[in-house]
Amino acid sequence: MGGQRRGLRVLVIGGGIGGLCLAQGLRQHDVDVTVYERDESALGRRQGYRLRISPEGEQALRDCLPHRAQQLLVATANMRYEKGLAAYDERLNPQWAPTFEDARGDAPDKVDAVDRVTLRRILLAGLDDRVCFGKRFTHYEQRPGGQVAAWFDDGTHDVGDVLVAADGTNSRVRTQLGGEHALSDLGVRAILSRTPMAAAIQAGMPEVLRDRFTYVIGADGFHLGMMPMVFRTEPRKAAAELWPGLEFDDVQDYYMSVFSVHRSELGLADEEFFAMTGRQLCDLVLKRTSGWHPDLHGVFDYAEPEQTFPVALRATLPVLSWKAGNIVPLGDAVHAMPPSGGVGANTAVRDASALSRALVAVDQGKQSLAEAVAAYQEAMTGYATEAVVMSLKIAQWSMKLDFAP
Ligand SMILES: Cc1cc2nc3c(=O)[nH]c(=O)nc-3n(C[C@H](O)[C@H](O)[C@H](O)COP(=O)(O)OP(=O)(O)OC[C@H]3O[C@@H](n4cnc5c(N)ncnc54)[C@H](O)[C@@H]3O)c2cc1C
């Protein structure tokens, strides 16, 4: 095929981690892309906090982001490299402590964990004219000539050559497309929370727990994963130096905590659990951990209720290609996985990098859309399956699951 620019127009549904990363990759190659996000702004989503970034995820982010955004990513990344995981029982008796191999070693510009909201802001940098907030996708419609129209709940629509489903686990695009999709509820219910690091340390958190991924196995089926996020540079300060004018939130170092329990050991029906306020969830954690070692209490006592919310863990297995055509899947919409492997977002940005390369080749007239999308889906289903299986095996190692690989 020749080298004539085709003028491809890409519509992305969902401005989460994967959708925004794709838009960055396409924009670097002047491909016409618009992202439609249901949230009213970049602020205010209960998305979770710290994200571990794998070597593959870091590479994909670097592939898609312009240089200045990469500098911001490095400047705001986690400063204390993960020194493996230490597991304890609830009285802090050591259980096991595996170490992780990381090919990046202690490279000074390594990005091994980030704050999720800060990452989303970096992924939005320079995309002001490409991201439309407050646009809830309702349905699509195939048009003659191979184009596709996306409709939104305010009655408006847009037309493009490709529609990318980056709308997460409950993907509406996927629902309309139909076909087989094996999404299972793992039966695990989690409470996500955030505790300011200074408060936890002042309350007596011992040195040994401060710097690593701590996993605590409670006797009653209640488990805690606790991870530190220490900014290399506070995001607002980093932006003032590297990208003046870019808005960041006022965020301080913190611990992210994830309490997980199988629903049979929760003692609450789902309706009741998911209706709980942040304060009620914090109180539930305090009650269930009252007998735990006092050194852990700072994290529970100072957890921020407004940053505490419930989540159900789900997984897609097998990961299946979608019908080849102009509706293309990306991220959790096609491969949900439990957070135990720390690779869901990494896999979404890996998709973004691969799909961006594929769509650039189509735009440049080097490949047909059908060929490019089929090749992308074949590679994606392979590495995403590995990621889902690995995440399930880790979850299964410590928890009872309703669905196992
Ligand atoms: C507790 C927890 C910890 C995790 N930790 C890690 C980790 O350390 N490392 C890691 O790699 N992964 C982690 N993950 C997984 C990671 O969060 C997801 O895999 C990742 O966010 C998926 O990205 P995505 O772009 O596919 O979906 P999302 O980031 O969920 O984005 C989907 C977007 O689509 C929008 N949307 C949905 N429906 C519509 C609609 N109808 N119209 C318009 N917009 C819509 C949503 O508002 C959202 O912005 C964790 C998950 C959890 C729950």
From TrEMBL:
Q: What are the alphabetically sorted keywords of the record?
A: FAD, Flavoprotein, Monooxygenase, Oxidoreductase
InterPro entries per the UniProt record, alphabetical: FAD-bd, FAD/NAD-bd_sf
Query: Which residues does UniProt call coiled coil?
Result: none
Q: Which Pfam families match?
A: FAD_binding_3 (PF01494), NAD_binding_8 (PF13450)
Tell me which residues make up the FAD-binding domain. Answer: 321-379
Please identify the protein, giving its name as recorded. 2-polyprenyl-6-methoxyphenol hydroxylase-like FAD-dependent oxidoreductase
Query: Which species?
Result: Kibdelosporangium banguiense
